[in-house]
């Protein structure tokens, strides 16, 4: 069942990143207190990396037990290990190299020079198996119940590497698929599918900047998920849109009324 989106609009993208980082720290600490460990799915893109950089700069980051955190990715650009355009390379630079993570709990999506070579579909299947191995009987299917799954929203409403009208966004069975011919470079990618995204307890969609305004308005105004993939991203218990004022500027008044004078 879908959870209705809740909106939080911050003044600007810096404040949004700082507030989202604070929110994430609290979620991780709470999950570790109640379940022993936490699992978070990271996103690439400007807003996702902004959040990680804000987290790296937050003194409260020391409240997290980094050794009891599983990190997964929502999507990856299918490029060689260490390529500066890979989402994990950017995440390492922004945060991961500065905190004491357990390397066994950092679940990178495969690279194009990994065990499956340039076969992106085999790489996607391998990641699906890794997720399935991590899922326990308490989970609802072949993916763990992630505590928080974050998604950047592209100006075309794409989330992860689910682009409008491409086959990946229509996938109802597999949890991870290879993407061929993405409109945003690089064309070859690996992505979680909507069913895998919806296994998360909380899904957070990050949208800051004027170039996200139209996408946010479309996705939050009842568009279909095939045309607007962000509209199909929701969590089991919560779906949270974290926006800045610029990204919220085209939302219908019923969703985001103008502040009273
Ligand atoms: O290519 C990608 O783009 C989206 C959105 O990125 P942004 O820079 O427009 O915020 C991102 O969420 C995704 O993970 C990434 O692979």
UniProtKB/TrEMBL annotation:
Pathway assigned to this chain's UniProt record: Carbohydrate degradation; pentose phosphate pathway; D-ribulose 5-phosphate from D-glucose 6-phosphate (oxidative stage): step 2/3
Reaction(s) this enzyme catalyzes, per UniProt: 6-phospho-D-glucono-1,5-lactone + H2O = 6-phospho-D-gluconate + H(+)
Listed EC numbers: 3.1.1.31
Domain of life: Bacteria
UniProtKB keywords: Hydrolase
Record-level Gene Ontology MF annotations: 6-phosphogluconolactonase activity
Domain Glucosamine/galactosamine-6-phosphate isomerase stretches: 12-241
Enzyme class: hydrolase
One Pfam family matching this protein: Glucosamine_iso
Function field: Hydrolysis of 6-phosphogluconolactone to 6-phosphogluconate.
Protein family membership: Belongs to the glucosamine/galactosamine-6-phosphate isomerase family. 6-phosphogluconolactonase subfamily.
Protein name listed in UniProt: 6-phosphogluconolactonase
Gene: pgl
């Amino acid at each position: 069942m879908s959870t209705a989106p809740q909106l939080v609009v911050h003044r600007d993208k810096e404040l949004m990143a700082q507030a989202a980082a604070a929110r994430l720290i609290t979620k991780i600490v709470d999950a570790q207190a109640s379940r022993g460990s936490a699992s978070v799915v990271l996103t690439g893109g400007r807003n996702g990396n902004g959040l990680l950089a804000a987290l790296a700069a937050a003194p409260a980051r020391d409240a997290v037990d980094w050794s009891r955190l599983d990190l997964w990715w929502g999507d990856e650009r299918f490029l060689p290990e260490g390529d500066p355009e890979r989402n994990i390379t950017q995440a390492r630079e922004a945060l991961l190299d500065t905190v004491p993570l357990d390397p066994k709990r950092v679940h990178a999506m495969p690279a194009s020079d990994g065990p499956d070579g340039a076969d992106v579909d085999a790489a996607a299947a391998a990641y699906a198996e890794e997720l399935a191995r991590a899922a326990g009987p308490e989970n609802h299917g072949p993916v763990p119940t992630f505590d928080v799954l974050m998604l950047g929203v592209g100006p075309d409403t794409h989330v992860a590497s689910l682009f409008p009208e491409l086959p990946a966004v229509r996938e109802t069975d597999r949890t991870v698929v290879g993407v061929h011919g993405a409109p945003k470079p690089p064309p070859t990618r690996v992505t979680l599918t909507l069913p895998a995204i919806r296994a998360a307890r909380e899904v957070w969609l990050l949208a800051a900047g004027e170039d996200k305004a139209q996408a946010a308005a479309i996705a939050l105004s009842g568009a279909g998920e095939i045309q607007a993939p962000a509209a199909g991203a929701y969590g089991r218990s919560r779906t949270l849109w974290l926006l800045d004022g610029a990204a919220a500027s085209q939302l219908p008044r019923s969703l985001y009324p103008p502040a009273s004078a």
